[in-house]
Amino acid sequence: MTGFELRLWRKSLGWSRDRAAEELGVCLRSYKDYENAQEVRRAIVLATITLSVRGLMPVMSRPKISKTKVLEMLQRILP
Question: pTM of the entire structure?
Answer without folding.
Answer: 0.76
